[in-house]
Design brief:
alpha/beta; FAD/NAD(P)-binding domain; five-stranded parallel beta sheet; binds flavin-adenine dinucleotide; oxidoreductase; Auxin_biosynth/cation_transpt; FAD/NAD-bd_sf
Length: about 350
């Protein structure tokens, strides 16, 4: 059973087929969304292929081949789903959708996968449900008192929504910068980040990327909650950023220490009024439906093992490509391949013991 048909789920399905399995008799792919595209179909309209980092090719088919418009201004929320759709067709990966898995449980050594419509059963699970469904907002004192709106990256559609509102943009990553850029053109903004942001002039630093992946991998192998691998890319010094500097909107404040009825407050007593707090504070694995079958540590994390740390150490019949160190398009690709192979190996070993 493959749950989720984003980059990780499609890569896993491709490799399961390559290992000789047939969709239908041997495995099925479920996805909560009504169309192809994984979480990319939900991205805000102004996120274009020139403003995302990079979409890595799925195995066996190049993304570029599927772009019918030259240039890089194509909306990511259209181009990537189009690519995934053609990919599913080319490799005969039939996805059952929309099927949202609500709960998974074990009975007589089989997994039961419960959606609103159907109850499926399986010997093993490749869970590739990504992070989009689980936005993360850190806790700050007073959050419940705030009379304005608290939104997350996930809620952003267009900057126009914020017109006339005073907006506190929280976060030092690429999403925060992109949304700050757009919102600051239509209304007053205050930017807060935990650490002073670092802008990079050159291309993405591969060495820093590898280091970040290794660090997150180490965390999940020890059962700790993963940190983000895509947040380490640094902030590119793009023409938009140069313009934001010129407009004075990159005047960054440290994190506030408390939220009040009508704004935010810093440790030194300084206060700012706000109508909206926009949290660009990332995502966590969307694993709620697996709570009955995933062994969690006291830290809240899951001990991962296997070649790319995609196998749940205490339940090797469950694999999580796209979780932790593989939560990037390149990582999800590789993780899908490894998860397919390692799950098959686990099930074959279990079978030979019976
Ligand atoms: P997803 O694409 O999230 O797919 C998960 C699928 O699972 C979805 O189709 C969903 O419908 C389905 N699903 C979820 N829950 C259930 C359920 N309970 N039952 C059934 N189906 C379910 N990474 C990069 O490498 N480069 C980038 O440029 C980049 N840009 C990003 C920009 C933004 C704004 C964000 C938020 C993330 C970005 N990322 C980027 C990270 C990106 O999300 C991952 O790299 C990758 O796309 C995740 O793939 P995935 O297959 O793990 O998950």
């Amino acid at each position: 059973m493959v749950i989720g048909a984003g980059q990780a789920g499609l890569s896993a399905a491709y490799h399961l087929k390559k290992l000789g399995l047939e969709i239908g008799p041997d495995f099925i792919v479920l996805d909560a969304a009504s169309a192809a595209g994984g979480a990319w179909q939900y991205r805000w309209p102004s996120l274009t292929l020139s403003t995302v980092n990079k979409i890595h090719d799925l195995p066996g088919m190049a993304f570029d081949e599927t772009l019918d418009t030259a240039g890089t201004t194509v909306q990511a929320s259209i181009a990537v789903p189009h690519y995934f759709d053609l990919y599913e067709q080319k490799f005969g990966i039939r996805v059952f959708r929309p099927v949202k898995v609500e709960n998974v449980y074990l009975h007589n050594d089989r997994f039961y996968i419960d959606s609103q419509k159907t109850l499926f059963s399986a010997m093993g699970i490749i869970n590739a449900t990504g992070t989009w469904e689980n936005p993360y907002i850190p806790a700050y004192p007073g959050a419940e008192l705030f009379m304005g709106e608290q939104l997350h990256t996930k809620d952003f559609k267009t900057a126009d929504y914020f017109k006339g509102k005073r907006v506190v943009v929280v976060g030092g990553g690429i999403s925060a910068i992109q949304l700050l850029d757009q919102i600051s053109k239509v209304t007053a903004t205050i930017w807060v980040t935990r650490r002073p942001p670092v802008f990079r002039e050159g291309p993405f630093d591969d060495v820093a990327g590898h280091k970040a992946v290794a660090m997150v991998e180490e965390r999940v192998r020890n059962g700790l909650i993963p940190s983000s691998v895509v947040s380490v890319t640094g902030l590119p010094l793009s023409p938009e950023v140069v313009d934001m500097k010129r407009r004075g909107v990159l005047n960054r404040f440290p994190m506030f220490s408390e939220i009040t009825r009508d704004g935010v407050k810093w440790e030194d007593g300084r206060e700012e009024k706000a109508d909206v707090i926009l949290w660009n504070t990332g995502f966590r694995g969307a694993l709620e439906h697996l709570k009955a079958v995933l062994p969690r540590e006291e830290t809240g994390g899951i001990i991962m093992s296997g070649r790319l740390a995609t196998m749940v150490a205490k339940e090797p019949r469950i694999h999580l490509p796209g979780y932790g160190p593989s939560a990037s398009t390149i990582g999800a690709n590789r993780a899908g391949a490894v998860a397919a192979r390692e799950l098959m190996a686990t099930l074959n070993i279990l079978e030979s013991h019976h």
